[in-house]
Amino acid sequence: MKIQDITKMAHSIIERQKIENSFIEYKKSINFKASILKTACAYANNYMNNEIGLVFIGIEEIDDKKIGEKAIPKRPISGINESKIEGIENELKSLLSHIIPKIHYHLLQDQIDHQFYIIVAVEPNSNGPCKTIEKAEKDKNIKLKSGRYIRIERDTKLPNNFEEFELLKKFTQKPFSSELNETATLDDLNYEYIKEYLIATNAKEDIKNLSKEELAKSLGLAVKTTYGGYRAKNFAVLMFTEKPNNFIPNAHVEIIRERKNTDQMESKKFDGPIWIQAKQVVQYFLDNIQLSYTLRDDKQIEHKIIYNYPLTAFEEIATNAIIHKDYDNHEYVGIYVYKDYISFINHNRPLPPVTIDDLNNQNSFDRRKYLNAELKDMFFALNLIESYGSGIRRAKEALSKNESPNINFYPDNEEDNYTQAVMKICPKFEKTVPQNISETQKKIFEIIMNNPKTTIKKISDQIGLSYSGVRYNLDILKELGLIKFVGSRKSGEWEIHNQ
After folding, report:
1. Under DSSP, is residue 381 helix (H, G, I), strand (E, B) or coil?
2. Is the separation of the CB atoms in 194 and 217 below 8 Å?
3. In 3-state terms, what secondary structure has residue 147?
4. Is the fold of 3-172 the same as that of 253-429?
């Protein structure tokens, strides 16, 4: 960032009395050396992927009980005597030299409330992770334990095992999806899938007519090696090989369902190119999981369709799991379908700055980082996602519109490395079968509820009752005002009426 932009932003933060967060820290004076040092180290490590980190010296943080906010800048500020600014800046330079490798920062001055303050603006390091040295721990004026500090929200701390691993990976590896696959070559990429992708994304005709090798080069799918031939990148393997599992273990989705009226589970595996996996998973949901009924109230003109689970919510969460999967972690995406809820399991957490808590409490993520940037862009081009960072919002809105419970994300701790989304069945859907009718009529009612386009013959085959017997019970249900057939015999369907 430009110096003038940093100063302008810092001034605005104080003016608006912004609370401390992942990139804002207030200190009344230079005397809080340990805190300043570890915060600067954390900003350089940039675990939360911020553009810059700011430590304000000469500004005290307070809690405002009236508005219920914590760690806001006290106004008017306590400030720094102008004659002491140069000396404090020299102290800060000495203090920050206790971080290795050397961090990139700016010491800036500004005024507010007729008082001076200093801004320590720390840029993210590209050659980290950064660490405070033992000399700082031994210095009686600092006494800060040596380590690689990180900042999460307002908390500056030493990382736990999982966070340490993520921090090291941040600085030592390219994203897995961008790396060359260990074994896959250009020959392993399916030319027809590449052309299908180009057609689906409305590519220009001259690109569609290129050879496989020319397409691979133009799309950045493969790299020519020193010894001849082309090695495919991991994202190309995931998008354009017949079975990505052959090259990247468990690069597939499994839907595991509870068999109706049993305690057994059955599994369906989707293991083609991941963009086709996403489409097939949604189609399987429509064909085998989603149920609906039409609810008509005699007092209202319009009818309402109730779903056990709304399509948009399932589609967004399932697609999110595929895009955000860490494919270097050899665990498949699992979707577990139970009687009254669906659980989506991905064996990695969201990439900072997004946290599990954010997924539960926020709807949009403007600053979301993508582990698989190429996959995100390709899914967007295929219209499998509508806009960046909007999937959770769309899922929550769909659930709300269907009068379903909100989705819940887990785990509720900082150690476990997985993301679980639990979507519960719509409560209204569970309470649709009337209890004041016979058992046979209940079975017929439930079949209609699950398939409004069903026929008398199909009902007869399902429950082992004669055609005339089904018709007799349907007449009773109609007389009771519970069901009504609307439309022609060929294209019509059953409606369920509100009680």
Report:
1. helix
2. no
3. strand
4. no
End-to-end CA distance of the chain: 63
Write down the domain spans for the chain.
3-172, 176-246, 253-429, 432-497
* DSSP conformation class of 292: E
| Amino acid residing at 285 | F
Per-position pLDDT tens, the chain of length 499: 789 899 999 999 999 999 999 999 999 999 999 999 999 999 999 998 888 999 999 999 998 777 677 889 999 999 999 999 999 999 999 999 999 999 999 999 999 999 999 999 999 988 889 999 999 999 999 999 999 999 998 899 999 988 888 888 888 777 889 899 989 999 999 999 999 999 999 888 888 788 888 988 889 999 887 666 889 999 999 999 999 999 999 999 999 998 765 678 899 999 999 999 999 999 999 988 988 877 666 566 667 788 999 999 999 999 999 999 999 989 999 999 998 899 999 999 988 888 899 999 988 887 777 889 899 999 999 998 876 668 899 999 999 999 999 999 999 887 788 999 999 999 877 656 777 788 899 889 888 887 888 899 999 999 999 999 999 999 999 888 888 888 887 788 888 775 4
The DSSP H or E segment spanning 408 is strand 408-410
From CA 120, how far away is CA 117, in angstroms rounded? Answer: 10
Buried b (16+ CB within 10 A) or exposed e, 421-459: bbbbbbebbeebeeeebeeebbbbbebbbebbebeeeeb
- Domain 432-497 in CATH 2.30.30.100? The answer is no
Instruction: From 61, 132, 76, 82, select the one nearest 102 (Cα to Cα).
Output: 132
CATH of the domain spanning 253-429? 3.30.565.60
The token duo for 477 is: 């249900």
Strand order in the sheet with 408-410: 265-270, 253-258, 333-337, 341-346, 419-424, 408-410
Question: Taking Cα atoms as reference points, which of 121, 111, 116, 106 lies closest to residue 29?
Answer: 116
pTM of the model: 0.70
Domain 3-172 classification at class level: alpha beta
